[in-house]
Amino acid sequence: MKRMCAVVLCCGLMVCVAPGKTAAEVWEGVVTRVLDGDSFRIRRGQQLVTIRLYGIDSPEYGQACWREAKDGAAALLLRKQVNVEPVTTDRYGRTVALVGFRGQLINAEMVGRGLAWVYRHYCTAQPVCRRLESLEEIARSERRGIWREQRPVPPWVWKHRR
């Protein structure tokens, strides 16, 4: 995931294209199921693809704001045709990607609404990660979503404690 990227405008969506990739590698599919706030399934032709949103991490099942994050992702994605710009594949075989719908970067929407943290350990593609960090600061200062909690625990810390 430690690839530098250039920003291109594709269908009004800011996408990160890693060196050696072209905007033509962005593909479309319809979201069929939202698994949680940062992962879902997309039908691409006859294939079902599991997607993990790049650079963010949302609350885990059982964690504060988990349902709010899942419902927020569902409202943004479910049954919608989205643009997918793969960044990498994770250890579970999921496509880790930037996902857009009608000019919105869903990764950024989730952070901006306070429904996900920037996963700084894995978010290395600039300027996308800088944009996500900026949106997280705004959501935090306006106490949106997870930031309403007194001491919100990032999912990677929450999982480690369990």
Short description:
The protein is an alpha+beta fold and 162 residues long. The chain has 4 helices and 10 strands, in the order E-E-E-E-E-E-H-E-E-E-H-E-H-H.
Structural class: alpha+beta
The amount of beta strand, in percent, is: 25-35%
Under the CATH scheme, which architecture would be assigned?
Answer: Beta Barrel
Average of the residue pLDDT scores: 88
What fraction, in percent, of the residue positions are helical?
A: 10-25%
The domain tally reads 1
Q: Termini separation (Å)?
A: 26 Å
For the record, the CATH class is: Mainly Beta
Oligomer: single chain
Helix tally equals 4
Rg from Cα: 15 Å
Low-pLDDT residue spans: 1-20
- Written as H for each helix and E for each strand, in order along the chain, the element string is EEEEEEHEEEHEHH
What is the CATH T-level topology?
Answer: OB fold (Dihydrolipoamide Acetyltransferase, E2P)
Largest β sheet strand count, sense and barrel closure: 5 strands, mixed, barrel
Kindly describe this structure.
The chain has a five-stranded mixed β-barrel. The protein starts with 5 loop residues before the first strand and ends with a helix. The protein has helices at residues 66-77, 106-112, 128-141, 155-161; strands at residues 6-10, 13-17, 27-36, 39-44, 47-53, 56-57, 81-89, 95-101, 104-105, 117-118. The protein has one domain (6-16, 24-161): Beta Barrel (OB fold (Dihydrolipoamide Acetyltransferase, E2P)). It is 25% helix and 34% strand. The protein is built from four helices and ten strands. It is of the alpha+beta class and 162 residues long.
